Amino acid sequence: CGTTFKIFLPLSADAPEASAEEEKELVRGRGETILLVEDETPLRRMVRQCLEESGYKVLEAGDGIEAIAVGHKHQWKIDQLLSDAIMPRMGGVSLLSEVAVTYPAIQLMLMTGYTDDVVLRRGKLNSVRVIRKPFTRSALLHRIRTVLDTAKPPARRYTILLAEDDPNYRELIEDTLQSAGFEVLSSKDGARALLHGLSHSIDLAILDTMMPRTTGFSVCRKLRSNPSTATVPIVVMSGLTTKDDRRRALEAGANIFLRKPFSSDELVSTINTLLVGR
Length: 278
Known about the structure:
The protein has two domains: 20-150, Response regulator (Rossmann fold, 3-Layer(aba) Sandwich), CATH 3.40.50.2300; 159-274, Rossmann fold, CATH 3.40.50. It contains eleven helices and ten strands. It has helices at 20-23, 41-53, 64-73, 92-102, 116-120, 137-150, 167-179, 190-199, 216-225, 243-252, 264-274; strands at 33-37, 57-61, 80-84, 107-112, 129-132, 159-163, 183-187, 204-208, 234-238, 256-259. α9 links the parallel β8 (204-208) and β9 (234-238).
């Protein structure tokens, strides 16, 4: 029998970054306060800079004990606790367990460069989100925005126009949107989607690119040209990954181009970001 070695990689500054085009679509912070807990000073500084440049207010601590002191100092007016898993004195799992009981409104996220057995020892922390090291700037910011957005239900019931010809994908998106508190006008082709969009008051549209009768690009252009829907946020989605499809979507008037497959969290976070101020 041979010897088995396990190598655990921490956060790396050399992790591949998103393209410049994708960076422009990163969802930014809205002034929320994040308590960042990380015992490795260079990594903590790097993550803090990333968060502050993206519109977040950041408090920091080197371990769980210090984090609790910082929280008390700021009266726990914190939106999210972002903690490393393994630290001296008090690790992330113990810290999050304590905060979850006393301050349940604070959103919790664990950073770890280790294997699943570390995460499994979270015990009853089923609601804690986990992000794996190494992660990119894009992945971190998107994950944080998702956690914060999914914790805040819409202030009012928004109506979303959905156009998707694949029945399985359409049903999945419908369920996701309805579970997030949105009302959905669903269509299986572009022509019906356009009819629904122009005959109802909609707050946002989600359009697949390739559909029978009328493409998503065409529906997007027609919604933009109509005064009643000219300013409605539009998300165009496609399983194709060519830059040409992204370009065509944006030229047609889309706000965001999403590549399939995407997670439910990613979709809801994108929608909530586009609906801010509406």
